[in-house]
Amino acid sequence: MHELNRRSFLKAAGAASATTMLGARMHALTAMQTEPARPVAANDHIQIALIGAGGQGQGDTKIAVQVPGVKLVAVADCYNGRLDHSKEIWGDDIFTTRDYNEILARKDIDAVIIGTPDHWHKHASCDAMKAGKDVYCEKPMIHLYADGPEMIETAHATNRIIQIGSQRVSSLLYIKAKELLEAGAIGKLNMVTARWDRNSAMGAWSYTVPLDASPETCDWPRFLGSAPKIPFNAEHFFQWRKWKAYGSGVAGDLFVHLFSGTHFITGSHGPTRGMAAGGLRFWNDGRDVPDVMLGLFDYREGFNLSLRVNFVDGGEESEGLIFTGSEGTMEIGGGAVTVTRVPREQAPGYMIDSFTEAMQKQILADYDKKYPPHSGSESLGGVEKYEAPHGYSDSYDHFKNFFEAVRTRKPVVEDAVFGFRAAGAALLSNLSIERGQVVKWDPDAMKLV
Predict the structure, then answer these.
(1) Which CATH number goes with the domain that contains 203?
(2) What is the average per-residue pLDDT within 355-375?
(3) Burial (CB count <10 Å: 0-12, 13-18, 19+), residue 322
(4) What is the distance between the alpha carbons of residues 25 and 210, in angstroms, rounded to a whole number?
(5) Which domain holds residue 97?
(6) Which of 37, 163, 260, 324 fits a disulfide with 422 by CB distance 3.0 to 4.6 angstroms?
């Protein structure tokens, strides 16, 4: 036993020394959002409109107009206060309306940003494409599975550009992670673990309701659209993510980001089956969607994806993904990609304590001949970290990709097919909870099985 312990210690010490010498190597990634020095030609400007000017829509637009050669000219929303505020932000010459069809009828608008509730995504996107506008549609692309094929077909039929707004797929961190995985940085991928935790009322969608909310200031019938007709409800109007009639719950709001990132980095079309569990654990405020959800999904590429969203988290609000491979892990979080390689021995090791002394000596002698001590067969471990520049915005790069496609008609990074595969996979979680069973999905045909 003395010889066995000594040898194990020497091997462990050698591996630890190698790791320590390698250290944590830091790499600063270069921002992708550096613009060319030349000014954008006057005839190359893109005029855009915003449809759905809530927090997400306004936030998107503030970033979009930072891209050179992009100008906002119109805004549509069902709440007067947001139309008024749009003029405060972008000027009194901005055209505002409750009816987005007035925007789509204008010939001077090239593209629209759709920041409506989920149940309007398909309607607004298809109407815009049929009116000759290119579309940036917030995630999730769909509210119902039937929305996906119609949006894809409309994009093809009208030859319009459509970009779905899961901006992580344009992130330089995710691009680096994809490069590292393809290069074998962590060996063969076998598991992806993803999380998104929140512990605040705003994070749990309990958004502030304005003091003047009423049927006079809010176009309630237009907001409802295809949703069930109920009397005016200010909470439903301004906190719509909390109800299935208008939103898709944590699956459509947050899981979809994690699916988008996983699919982009791995190149997968999606899972073949999935199951989820969850429920209302804390925010019992009338909402009908879970505030905690966990999901587990099988991928035919040979890895599993586990996801967690927790609105009752007592710790720090955070998001992240961990890719686990045969030779290490790769984590995305905190503005960086961190690869941790695990020292791996080529020798298999041994367990001989229960054998006779004679047998132990014989096995050790054979083992030493086949695997000489300190033969250099151990792979080195270490940590490499790739950090994004301070103030980096993946949303900016996502819009930059969109507007470049609008100008050149080249494909975007997240078209309707990619968007449907991500949202279709995410919404399997809702179906699994509703049905209480595993749900199967065909990621190529994009159909429930």
Answers:
(1) 3.30.360.10
(2) 89
(3) middle
(4) 49
(5) 42-168
(6) 260
Bridge partners, 71 (sequence order): 47
Torsion of CA 406, 415, 294, 433, to 10 degrees: 120
Tokens 């069930």 -> residue: 228
Is residue 329 within 8 A of residue 322, CB to CB? The reply is: yes
- CA 132 to CA 34: how far, in whole Å? 30
No. of helices (H) and no. of strands (E), the chain = 15, 17
| Average pLDDT over all residues of the chain | 91
**Stretch 201-209: mean pLDDT, rounded?**
96
Within-domain flag for 67: yes
* Pair 181, 291 in one domain: yes
DSSP helix/strand/coil, 295: strand
Do 241 and 290 contact (CB within 8 A), yes or no?
A: no
pLDDT for res 380: 63
Are residues 75 and 193 part of one domain? no
Q: Alpha-carbon distance 66 to 60, whole Å?
A: 10
Q: So what's the pLDDT on residue 32?
A: 72
C-alpha dist (Å) from residue 146 to 18, 162, 248: 55, 18, 14
Cα dist from 103 to 47, 58, 75, 94, 199, whole Å = 12, 17, 8, 11, 38
How would you class 2 by CB atoms within 10 Å of its CB: exposed for 0-12, middle for 13-18, buried for 19 or more?
exposed
Distance CA 78, CA 119 (A): 14
The whole-angstrom separation of Cα 195 and Cα 4 is: 41
Q: Is residue 398 part of a domain?
A: yes
Q: Are 192 and 324 in contact (CB under 8 A)?
A: yes
Which strands make up the sheet holding 273-279, listed edge to edge? 24-28, 382-387, 336-341, 328-333, 318-325, 189-197, 303-310, 292-299, 273-279, 439-442, 447-448
Decide: 272 and 428 in contact? Cβ < 8 Å.
Answer: no
Q: What is the pLDDT of residues 409-444, one digit of tens each?
A: 999 999 999 999 999 999 999 999 999 999 999 999
Segment among 142-156, 315-329, 361-375 with least mean pLDDT: 361-375
201 in any annotated domain: yes
Judgement on whether residues 270 and 128 belong to the same structural domain of the protein: no
Measured CA to CA, the distance from residue 321 to residue 263 in angstroms comes to 12
Q: What is the pLDDT of residues 254-285, one digit of tens each?
A: 999 999 999 999 999 999 999 999 999 999 99
- 31-90 pLDDT, tens digit per residue, is 876 665 556 666 779 999 999 999 999 999 999 999 999 999 999 999 999 999 999 999
Amino acid code (one letter) for 139: K
